[in-house]
């Protein structure tokens, strides 16, 4: 499904993103929005494997943490330039994703999700316990900001905001190209029915692994950006709660749509900012909200918009049909 591709809606979102720093009253607002963009990029990746291919990966937050720690370890412990470490974060996550995908995607449905939940927990334990590599609970601190170009320094919150925004725009554009291609239709065919897709000659394992790798690469690169933006890392980044957060973003915005995860990832973090006084009861508050969304708004904001759009499009036709039926007997009586 598509929403607003090639239409003024996307232009409006782009213009709002460009103009946000001019209305932000302080650097904290820029930091919150930059972080939201980073998690939006990771959520767009999760939506590829979950919304478009039908496989719910509960290790997605772990892959994001692997990407972040790749940047942190290379830059802090080995003095590798940030952008080389950033590229390495995508490559490391791609290789790890291919290995995990080859094993996990032999399972289906809940079994796949449970397996990836275990994989994500293993990632968390490795990051927390392998102090010689990851610094363990001591955290990695002093990660350098992304290296600037010319007179541009990404030490500045505004410049960093635009850097993250540029990566989000590029990531959404690439995802649109993937979704609209034959490969994207292949993923959706697998989501709709494994058996039907296989009968059409689709190689299920190859395409599932490809979708999985593309998905986690988004998470890994988002993690690399997160490391450069926040500049310190702790094991909590690999916690499954971040995957649940991204799942909430997809459900709020609209699972299996391009704009849905993006909107959800931008709306929910700001909502949490305004409800910080409930932080200790976060899951108590958002749990029921999520349940109500699934029951009464299963297709999210984008799905609601599309349903209203279809309803409006059919309303004139229905009115015209009733009028035609009402006028037809009168026409016949006149000839009689």
Automatic annotation (TrEMBL):
Protein localization: Cell membrane
UniProt GO cellular component terms: plasma membrane
CDD domains on file: TM_PBP1_LivM_like
Predominant location category: membrane
Coiled-coil stretches noted in the UniProt entry, renumbered to this chain: none
Membrane-spanning intervals of the chain: 30-49, 56-76, 82-103, 110-127, 133-152, 159-179, 209-234, 246-271, 283-305
Bilayer topology: Multi-pass membrane protein
Keywords recorded for this protein, A-Z: Cell membrane, Membrane, Transmembrane, Transmembrane helix
Residues making up the signal peptide according to the UniProt record: none
GO terms assigned for molecular function: branched-chain amino acid transmembrane transporter activity
Pfam families: BPD_transp_2
Region (Disordered): 317-336
Protein name: Candidate ABC type branched chain amino acid transport systems, permease component
Annotated source species: Paraburkholderia ribeironis
């Amino acid at each position: 499904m598509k929403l607003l591709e090639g239409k003024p809606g996307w232009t409006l979102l782009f213009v709002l993103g460009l103009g946000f720093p001019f209305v932000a009253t302080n650097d904290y607002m820029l930091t919150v929005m930059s972080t939201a963009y980073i998690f939006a990029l990771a959520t767009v990746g999760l939506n590829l494997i979950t919304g478009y291919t039908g496989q719910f990966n509960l290790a997605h937050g772990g892959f994001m943490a692997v990407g972040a720690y790749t940047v942190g370890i290379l830059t802090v412990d080995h003095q590798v330039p940030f952008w080389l470490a950033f590229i390495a974060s995508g490559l490391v996550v791609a290789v790890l994703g291919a290995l995990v995908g080859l094993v996990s995607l032999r399972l289906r449905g809940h079994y796949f999700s449970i397996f990836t939940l275990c994989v994500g927990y293993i990632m968390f334990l490795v990051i927390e316990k392998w102090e010689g590599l990851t610094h363990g609970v001591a955290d990695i601190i002093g990660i350098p900001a992304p290296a600037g170009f010319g007179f541009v320094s990404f030490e500045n919150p505004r410049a960093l905001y635009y850097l993250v925004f540029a990566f989000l725009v590029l990531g959404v554009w690439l995802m649109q190209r993937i979704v609209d291609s034959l490969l994207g239709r292949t993923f959706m065919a697998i989501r709709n029915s494994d058996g039907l897709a296989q009968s059409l000659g689709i190689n299920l394992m190859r395409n599932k692994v490809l979708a999985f790798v593309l998905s986690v690469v988004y998470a890994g690169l988002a993690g690399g950006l997160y490391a450069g933006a926040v500049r310190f890392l702790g094991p909590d980044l690999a916690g499954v709660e971040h995957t649940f957060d991204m799942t909430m973003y997809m459900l709020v915005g609209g699972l299996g749509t391009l704009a849905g995860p993006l909107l959800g990832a931008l709306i929910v973090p700001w909502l949490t900012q305004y409800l910080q006084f409930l932080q200790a009861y976060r899951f108590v508050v958002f749990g029921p909200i999520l349940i109500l969304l699934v029951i009464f708004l299963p297709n999210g904001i984008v799905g609601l918009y599309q349903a209203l759009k279809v309803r409006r499009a059919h309303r004139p036709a229905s009115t015209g049909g009733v009028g035609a039926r009402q006028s037809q007997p009168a026409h016949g009586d006149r000839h009689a």
